[in-house]
Amino acid sequence: MGKWTEGLLVWGRARPWAVDAPLVALAVWVSVWGVYTDPHGAGGKWWAYTLAIAGSLPLWWRRRAPWAVMGACGVPTMALSALAHSAMPQIQVAMAVAIYTVADRGKDWQRAVLLAICVVGNVIGTRSFDGMLFSLLVSVGSFVVGSLVRELRRLAGVEAERARQAGLRAASDAARAVAEERGRIAREMHDILAHAVSLMVVQAEAGPLVVHSNPDRAIRAFDAIADSGRDAMVQLRRVLGVLKEDGAAPALAPQPRLAELGGVLDRVREAGVAVDARIEEAGPAEVQAAAYRIVQEALTNVVKHARADRVVVRVAVRGGADLTVSVADDGTGPAASAGAGVDGRSGGRGLLSIRERAAACGGSAETGPRTDGPGYLVAAVLPLNA
């Protein structure tokens, strides 16, 4: 279908009167012309013209009440056929359009009744076999065309509904992706800020206590505060870069690597906790990022809650298939870090974040008091090929 034809159809649907007015005019003209040219003199009788016009004018309301219009056109037409059969045109335009409209827009029972009337009426009412075939062709043909248009409209409605449902699904998927991205950014912000602020608070509290007795230590404490703040700013810029809307193509997600853990470990040492760390840098970027954040969160909890003197950090590949993460302290503080219960398996945004990060990589995480002595243990297993 060409653009011009398609545009014309759209224009006609928006202005039905522009289609119906010529149809009514054509039907009236054909009926009146049949009366005027009647060889048996119907053209001189006013009632013949009245019936001819009355059988065509109701077409103006065919879209609103197709079944009623069918009857309104049919009664005068049958009356004219009975009183002046020779005045009937070869093709009764009004009846053809009325039949088409009922087939297109009528109810199912109306369509069934109309088809039966068309077939039975033409078989019984015509005077010759050829006349019967011609009448059947016009009436049943109009019915078939109307039925085809009806089916095409139904199929178009089905396709439109499918498109609407696809649009809704796409919008739902987009909203879910936005929610997931917000959750990811929230976890990143929590880990960055919790770690940095915890270390800054510890160092800020220690600085004034030793500013007179040990100035060098006080200076190191304040330097640690500055370093923590600068590191937090760098990481926050990486996270917030995802939210840019300037048309650039930022990285889909900030991906800290295990190689960057050295700075985190140094700041924990500066906070007064001895750190024994062995880090094996291995695995894809998303696994390394998850391991980095798990270690960072565990160390933040050690600084904030554990009252520990020493923490052991181990990140290693196990069996070539998994990256194992272990952070164990010897603290005597509350079992957990962020308000967890006695077993360390409930409550606390920090511990929940650790489990969520491990699960996002297809792995698992366990947190709770150590069984081999005082302190707390965070352990995670991250598949390298999830």
Structure description:
- With 386 residues, the chain is an alpha+beta fold.
- The chain is built from eleven helices and five strands; from the N terminus they run H-H-H-H-H-H-H-H-H-E-H-E-E-H-E-E.
- It has a five-stranded mixed sheet with strand order 1-2-3-5-4, with helices on one face.
- Helix 2 runs antiparallel to helix 3, helix 6 packs antiparallel against helix 7 and helix 7 crosses helix 10.
- The longest helix is centred in the middle third of the chain and has 82 residues.
- It starts with a helix and ends with a strand.
Query: DSSP helix count?
Result: 11
| Coarse structural class | alpha+beta
As a whole number of angstroms, the C-alpha radius of gyration is 43 Å
Q: Give the helices and strands as they follow along the chain.
A: HHHHHHHHHEHEEHEE
Biggest sheet: strands, sense, closure? 5 strands, mixed
- What is the share of helical residues? 55-70%
Number of DSSP strands? 5
Span of the ends, CA to CA? 50 Å
Main β-sheet, spatial strand arrangement? 1-2-3-5-4
What amount of the residues lies in strands? Answer: 5-15%
**Residue windows where pLDDT falls under 50 for at least 5 positions:** 246-253, 335-347
Coarse morphology: rod-shaped
Mean pLDDT, to the nearest integer, reads 79
